Amino acid sequence: MYKELLWIFTQLPDDYIVLDTETTGLPDENGLPDIVTLGITVVRHREIATSTEFQIRPQKPISAEAQSIHGITNEQAAEFESFDAQWQRIAEYLKDQLIVIHNASFDWPILRDNVERYELVMPQIQGVFCSQKAAIPWAQAMNLPCSHRGPSLDSLTELLAIENRRAGTDGVHGASIDSQQAAQVAEVMRNSGISIKSRT
Q1: pLDDT digit string (tens) for 125-180?
Q2: Which CATH number covers residue 106?
Q3: Backbone phi, then psi, for 117, in 5-degree steps?
Q4: Does residue 196 lie within any of the structural domains?
Q5: The domain containing residue 149 runs over which residues?
Q6: How many structural domains does the chain have?
Q7: Which of 14, 59, 64, 153 has the greatest CB tally within 10 Å of its CB?
């Protein structure tokens, strides 16, 4: 139902990338958090082609809350490579691509902050598409709970009857897994002919 509200997803190109991050915590008085893992899923011809995850040594400590979400300790993160040492490999994925992010208002400023902090250069991209914001009209019409950011990835996964890739991780978030999940959600929502009974 309400397939007309999914129109924006039908405008996605056949090829794009999906990005997700796990971080040291939330923005606070000390600024934006650091990236601990960065996941990139490549979509080609509307299908998931590859997925990779970069483990990044943060400069800031990982909060207890963040550790409970992604399961990475400060001791583990201390062994990861620095952001600048991996940037060229990350940038190659971003170059000339549309970047889809579920909750882009969180992940994208953090990525830009890391790039600027290390005085690196962001490659030319096609743009950033927030799948969470784009899903708001449809989710509201379907009576799906939404925060001010929009419907959660978990809520969309459940309503769309998509395989939950975190089911085997005891709910632990991972940047690669979550970017794959977001790609699956975007592609199902692209199919504007889906038939789902509205919650009443």
Answers
A1: 999 999 999 999 999 999 999 999 999 999 999 999 998 887 777 767 899 999 99
A2: 3.30.420.10
A3: -65, -40
A4: no
A5: 3-190
A6: 1
A7: 153
Q: What are the tens digits of pLDDT across the range 5-36? A: 999 999 999 999 999 999 999 999 889 999 99
95: its two tokens: 């170059």
- Residue 20 has φ and ψ, to the nearest 5°, of -145, 150
Q: Which amino acid type is present at position 14?
A: D
Strands 98-101 and 47-55 come out as: unpaired
Tell me whether residue 200 is in a domain: no
- The answer to whether the Cα torsion of 147, 148, 149, 151 is positive or negative is positive
Task: Please name the amino acid found at residue 105.
Answer: S
Distance of alpha carbon 97 from alpha carbon 111, whole angstroms:
15
Burial class of residue 147 in the structure, from the number of CB atoms within 10 Å of its CB (0-12 exposed, 13-18 middle, 19+ buried)? exposed
Residue 197 forms part of a structural domain: no
